[in-house]
Amino acid sequence: MNIETTNNTGNYVPYESESVTSEVTYPCEAHNPVYQNEAGNYIIDSNNQYELNDIFRSVSVKPMRIKHISHLDLDGYGSTILTEILTNFVPEGYYEIETDNILPNRLNSIMKEVIDNLDYWDRVIITDLAINEELLEMINTCKNPEKIRVFDHHKCDLTNLPDNIIVTKHSPIQKGHLTCATELYYNFLRNDPIYEIVKIRGNDRAIAYFVECVRVYDTFEFWKTRNDPENTQYESYVDAPRLNTLFHILEREDFKQYMYYYLLNSTPMMSLTHSNIKYPYISEVLALEANKNNRYVDAALRRLIKTDLCCTIWRDNKPNKLDYHIGVIFAEKNGPVIGNTACENNNELDFCAVVSNNQVSLYTNKENIDVSSIAKLFGGGGHEEAAGLTIPYINANVYSLNHFFNIIECAGRLIPGQFDSQVTDMSDTN
Q: What is the pTM of this model?
């Protein structure tokens, strides 16, 4: 099969210099019809008349086995999408890529297995997952620590991190610019030889816009500046929350396919969440979902419970006194909007806890309160203004655990004592 391109009239014609050889086959051509236009022709940037085969030969790219471990949210999947899309720019089988999106509590156990088989992998990537002292020790003492790269933006108390572990809240490139794991990883990839192919193919601007939308949502920048007309006019501030909605309403594989279609075929000016050939009704679905979400948020805010969190929690043999006036809301989605809105509408609250099944998310708009430190006492973590914990994996003493549940019980949604039998089992789990 010849790769198709466009001539000056916009008609698709075969590129004549060289046919794609049988030993050099690209996944985006041979295996994924999503990358075809309505006429059945493969979409190649009309501004570049290179055959992918020729481009590949001009760039020094080595075969590679890549293991990528990331979080389960938009930022986590945004990072792994960047890794997975690389296979579309090299011959089939040239990259062996394995991605794993997980909850934070699984990171150490998975990394122990990865490090035990580190000889197999050429590159191990960790994104959007906070590392602890145990994992840092595992990385620093393994045979080839330079193979492992970490990109994270959560609060970290570890010091003297090696160059292969990047943990920062702000972009190292742009001063004062809040960043996310996807953006940190993207900046790393742009210096990789493979990215020369991406640039030549003209896909970099589309990828950069996707990364910016993930960043704007994950830092909640679109929310903080929503009342600023000079900022909200930018397309990314509109697309960011819609992209997150799309992430939650589509199955994960469908979401990734949608992103692959966009990143490989769209023009830089095309909105991420516009309908396309593969997903013709995305815009309509997002509009309906926006209306539903607004009603859901309003209903959740009416269920706000105000209470006091006053206790002493022992962790690492040290007492930690908690004395806060907090809000508790049960909601299965839209946690960031619900939590932040509750704090804005109830200035007397120190922070708000949004409970979804076994997940508790903490939000605050108070500069003197660090909810990541509070979450850490219960085995969680996160950012100063937004953090979370997972109830089954709380590592705390029996008193503090029961006290936290008693607060939730005040909403009348849990049966008193239902967790008592699990406390012993959970106490040594992290």
A: 0.76
